[in-house]
Amino acid sequence: MSNSWFILPRFLSKESNFFRALTGNHTFSSFRQGKTEMSSTVGPEIASAHSLGPRGRNALPLRRPVHQTSQELTDDTPSATRSPSRCSSTTSIEFDETAGDVVRVEGLRHSFERLDARRYKTVAFAGQLLLILRNIKLPHWAAVELSASSVKIQKVSGSLTNAVFFVSYPSNPSLPILLLRIYGPSSGNMISRPRELHVLHVLSSQYHIGPKVYGTFENGRVEEHFDSTALTPPEMRDPQVSSWIGARMAELHQVDITTVEGSAEWEIATKKNVRAWLHPAREVLALPSVSDSIRKDLNLDSFEAEWEHYMNWLDSQEKQLGASRRVFAHNDTQYGNLLRLNNPKPGLPEHRRIIVVDFEYAAPNTAAFDIANHFHEWTANYHSDIPHLLDSRRYPTKEERFNFYQSYITHCGLSTSSDGDECGSLNEQMTILDRQVQQWSPASHAMYAVWGIVQARETLEGDGDGEFDYIGYARCRMEGFRREVRALIP
């Protein structure tokens, strides 16, 4: 691999206005509160190593909601996705919640009703839901007399951690379709619903990003529904769609971190999460059902040392060449979390046909990490016969990456300096960003490798059906981390 990847172009000074805008001058600090046959993923211009063999064990898929147009669903339409449900907390703290926990956030109306997701087909359930909508004073729905027997409730997905429904009133089409989310007990999962709800509310109410949260009730919330369809893997790599995603990511990255985090000190999510998840990951690998070969392949003792070495190298690179901007990042822009509006409003900017959803992982991070993780998601197909497989052949080419960067940089407003002077060609800016993405690429593998181990607990303890192979996913990600670190660090 050419060493030119790691060298700042000589004609662009580290002291230039653009360089400061692109890299930022943020300091690192602490956040007070808060396999079957596999193909390796490869980063840009990194050679692929030998794939792992068929050694992964199956693990429990805690399904994500499937974002579809409501007209395509029937009452019993099951979730079609096999993607790994990333229900972990962005604050990386384990919460031992029960079904009795109540999640509220300041600024949202709350109803003291509680819904039983198992009874969603009953008139009594619909009546209770109408009461909730009146209590939270939802426009339109609360302003008219409605019959519970005329409410249509369509199941989107359901699990112990979340049951999601579309709610409509066919006899009065002027009433907007709603998305109803009912929480289940989540004991043992790393999840912070208060954190997620807070992020959703801030992003939607102050930045018009993501779905609006209309209100909460004792064990759930009511959200905005988008007439949209989740992207497919081929759609995500379409040049036009990819440029739209780049623009939307740029908009999210312009969110003021302090608006979401407040005055508390924060640490970038990838460092915080890896540190917080290592202990529960070790507990999982200590289970009797875990084979010696799995422990050897994942080898968390070795990983922890490798991670610290990589982080130290990365810190030195950023001090020498400039750091990637610290931004409020999504950290999980896989195709299932990207919706395309079916009927966009006239005059809507083209890139806003893409809606980003599922902010469970949204947190401060580097811009380069968020982009690198998105590029790794190009290699995934969670609807394939082997959904944990990451196929290196689908990693974006340089042309595809630069297509994304061009849109991202343009919408970030980084093409000129703060005083209006020109600060380097667009190609120079894209080259710098590409180098930063290269350097942060292993961090994405590392974070989700440890995550995959933690998520495998239920199946390894005998409680899962093994539809998604979390251990196989963790092995694939871990191999990617180690391969890319070897290529980056002499």
Descriptive report:
- With 490 residues, the protein is of the alpha+beta class.
- It folds into 2 domains: 320 residues, Aminoglycoside 3'-phosphotransferase, Chain: A, domain 2, CATH 3.90.1200.10; 156 residues, Phosphorylase Kinase, domain 1.
- 38% of the residues lie in helices and 10% in strands.
- The protein contains 14 helices and 10 strands.
- The strands form 3 sheets. It has a 5-stranded antiparallel sheet with strand order 1-2-3-5-4, with helices on both faces. The protein has a 3-stranded antiparallel sheet with strand order 6-8-9, with helices on one face.
- Strand 1 and strand 2 form a beta hairpin.
- It is globular.
- It starts with 16 loop residues before the first helix and ends with a helix.
- The relative contact order is 0.20.
- The N terminus is likely disordered.
Let me know the CATH homologous superfamily of the largest domain: Aminoglycoside phosphotransferase (APH), C-terminal lobe
Number of helices: 14
Report the span from N to C terminus.
Answer: 11 Å
The Cα radius of gyration reads: 23 Å
